[in-house]
Structures are given as C-alpha cells and as structure tokens.
C-alpha cells in the first residue's frame, strides 16, 4: 500500500503510529486482530521499519552495521551472505570503511540490505527510494515484488508513481488540513 | 535467518557496539578522566596546599569530581542512536528495550566509571588522603559510579529529544545524585576515623540493586516518550 499526500499531510506520522512509536490521539492499531500495545515484542517480530532516519551508525562500517542490526533483531546470517548482498547492492570494496565516508545513496543502501535479510511479514518504509539511483530503485522494486509474492505486506510512502509497477497496489491519499 | 538469539546475545551486541564506538572516538574515554584530574588538581591551587586541609576535604572533592565527570559522557549515551534512528530500530526489535538499555548503561559505566575507579588511588594520593581511607574510596566508587550511570541515564533518556537537553539533564540528575554523594562521602569519612563503614556501603549497595532493577524500565519508558 502506498501512502500519498502533500508535505505535512502526516504520512510519516501515520507510519510511526502503525509502527508503534507514536500513540494515536484516538483509536487503536490492530495486527492480526490484536492491539499492538498488548504484545508489542510479538508484533515487532513481524515488523521491519526503515524510516527517514535509517538507524545506520556513521562511525561503524557497512558490515558492522548490518551484523549489528541482525543481532538486535534476532536474525543470524553468514559473513559470506552479508558480503555478497552488500556486493549485490553496489557496495563492493566499501564494506569495511566507516559509513560516514559513503554517499547518501550508498548509506541508504546499507540500510536497505535489511530487506534481503529478514523474514518479517510487514515492511513499513518511509521514502525508501530517497537518494537511490535508477538501478537501485529497480532492484528495490523487484525485491518488493518477491516479498509480495511470498504473501508479505508493504506499507510505504513515496512520491514516485508505482501504479504500473505493482498490480496489487493500493493507494491511500492523505489530505493536508490546517 | 531465524529469530534465534538469546537475551544474552542482545546484551553483548549492544554492549560491544557502544564499546567499539567509544574506542574509535577515544576522546570520549579520555575527556572525562582528564576532567576528573583537572578538577582535583584545581582544589589545592584554590584553597592552598596544606596537607591536613586537603586530606580533610579529599572525600568530598573526589566524589564531586566523579559526579561531574560522569555527567560529561551522559549526554552521549543515547544522543547518536536517537539522531541516526538506531533507537527506533531497538524499539522495533522483538527484544525488551530495557535489556538494550541495560547494556548501554553498562557500556557507559565501563568507559566513564571504571577508569575513574582504577585511577582513584592516584587521585587519592594527590589529595593526601589517609591510607586507611583508600579502600573505602575504591569501594564507594565501585558501587557508586554504576549508580550514577543508572540515574544519569534516566535523565539522558528524558532529554535526548531536546535540542539543548544537556543543561536540563544536569538540573534533573544532579539533585538525584545527592543521596549517593552523602552516603559515599560519609563512608570515606568514617573510614578515616578507623570505624566500620559497612552500613553506608550497604545502603549504597541497596540503592544500586534498586537502580539495577528499576532504572532500565524507567529509562526505556523515557526513551519511548522521547522517540514518539
């Protein structure tokens, strides 16, 4: 599902409420018919959230960032798998330099490696295409399709037009209110 | 790719990350220690190098200096994680946030508190502290500095979302440090008089035990509020 709307309409706020970071003024967020507040840690197992702030540490290397994220979320992976994924995302030779020396697009790729390394059902992505080049966008979209084919759900905000790319796309348009 | 890690793995992961970061920016470890040293050397210059006077004031000075230098690194505990979004990732992990918080506080103590404990004998010598009080100084610092990290982290968690949270954090945290200061200096004073100081130590230990259990929960609630 794509969430659209002008700047300031509340796209990010909505995603943060659904992810459970912010509290709604009114109403509840249900996941599998259960209020996420009742069992947040259980909900978190099915959740992958990548926001504006991607959670990539500037001082650590790309490889360290990925392994840290994996352990924090309870996933395990092999060194060779992580290196080959980083290579696939165009970060060959940059795996072991501090992330702060990488470009904005490369830093975002370091965060997006997580999309290949999780088995969460629900992906919540805030502007995932920001700073990515065309090849990166295409790679991300094909990964989205794989996730959807496996029965996963994606909730994202973007200003890109995705109607032609995904057959099952639903759009939620938010309106700016004063 | 399965959810397979234990709580212990999570603790180690977060602890190791913070230590790695601290060792990559060594100033973070060295600065509080140098600050501690400078504050302690300022006192003899200001009040005069009379050995008796210094020895009398040493427990208070060492502890006030320890308290202030702990404050230096506190602001950093959650700041970077808040800025780059790692905090959100910790909240959105299937593990309790309080466990990650406990690891972060432990890492803060290892880089800020532990060096002070290790250097304490040298500083005690500078202040002409009575030799029988050295044990008490070490013990109170050993029990007291983790307590300072726990209490301080609550303030850091509450103010991490603010632009200039540092001063507000000091105002929040320093009053809460007073009980620690009172019992720690009292223990050292008692030891100078060659009396038993286990009572004060027991109270400090009790405070640490309560903080160990309650502070991570308080800190994670504070962080959730700051992130929302």
Automatic annotation (TrEMBL), chain B:
Superkingdom classification of source: Bacteria
Keyword terms, alphabetized: Cell inner membrane, Cell membrane, Cytochrome c-type biogenesis, Membrane, Transmembrane, Transmembrane helix, Transport
Protein's membrane topology: Multi-pass membrane protein
Subcellular compartments: Cell inner membrane
InterPro entries recorded: Cyt_c_biogenesis_CcmB (IPR003544), Cyt_c_CcmB_bac (IPR026031)
Transmembrane segments: 29-47, 53-74, 95-126, 138-160, 167-188, 200-223
A Pfam family annotated for this UniProt entry: CcmB
Family under the similarity heading: Belongs to the CcmB/CycW/HelB family.
Job of this protein: Required for the export of heme to the periplasm for the biogenesis of c-type cytochromes.
Protein name: Heme exporter protein B
Species assigned in the record: Pseudoalteromonas obscura
């Amino acid at each position: 599902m794509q969430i659209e709307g002008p700047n300031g309409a509340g796209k990010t706020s909505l995603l943060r409420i659904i992810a459970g970071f912010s509290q709604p003024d009114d109403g509840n967020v249900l996941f599998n018919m259960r209020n996420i507040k009742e069992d947040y840690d259980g909900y978190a197992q099915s959740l992958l959230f990548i926001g504006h702030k991607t959670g990539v540490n500037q001082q650590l290397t790309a490889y360290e960032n990925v392994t840290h994220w994996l352990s924090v979320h309870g996933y395990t992976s092999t060194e060779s798998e992580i290196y080959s994924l980083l290579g696939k995302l165009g970060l060959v030779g940059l795996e072991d330099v501090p992330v702060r020396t990488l470009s904005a697009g490369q830093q975002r790729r370091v965060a997006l490696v997580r999309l290949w390394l999780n088995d969460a059902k629900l992906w919540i992505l805030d502007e995932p295409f920001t700073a990515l080049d065309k090849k990166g966008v295409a790679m991300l979209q094909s990964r989205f399709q794989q996730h959807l084919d496996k029965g996963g759900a994606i909730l994202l905000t973007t200003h890109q037009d995705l109607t032609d790319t995904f057959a099952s796309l639903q759009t939620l348009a938010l309106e700016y209110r004063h | 790719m399965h959810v397979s890690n234990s709580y212990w793995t999570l603790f180690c992961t977060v602890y190791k990350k913070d230590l790695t970061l601290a060792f990559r920016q060594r100033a973070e470890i060295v600065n509080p220690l140098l600050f501690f040293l400078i504050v302690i050397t300022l006192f003899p210059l200001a009040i005069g190098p009379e050995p008796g006077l210094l020895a009398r004031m040493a427990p208070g000075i060492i502890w006030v200096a320890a308290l202030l230098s702990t404050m230096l690194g506190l602001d950093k505990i959650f700041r970077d994680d808040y800025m780059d979004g790692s905090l959100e990732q910790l909240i959105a992990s299937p593990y309790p946030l309080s466990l990650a918080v406990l690891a972060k506080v432990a890492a803060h103590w290892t880089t800020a508190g532990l060096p002070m404990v290790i250097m304490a004998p040298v500083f005690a010598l500078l202040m002409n502290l009575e030799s029988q009080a050295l044990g008490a100084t070490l013990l109170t610092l050993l029990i007291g500095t983790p307590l300072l990290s726990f209490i301080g982290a609550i303030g850091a968690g509450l103010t991490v979302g603010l632009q200039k949270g540092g001063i507000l954090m000091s105002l929040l945290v320093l009053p809460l440090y007073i009980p620690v200061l009172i019992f720690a200096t009292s223990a050292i004073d008692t030891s100078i008089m060659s009396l038993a100081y286990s009572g004060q130590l027991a109270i400090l230990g009790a405070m640490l035990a309560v903080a160990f259990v309650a502070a991570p929960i308080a800190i994670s609630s504070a962080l959730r509020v700051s992130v929302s």
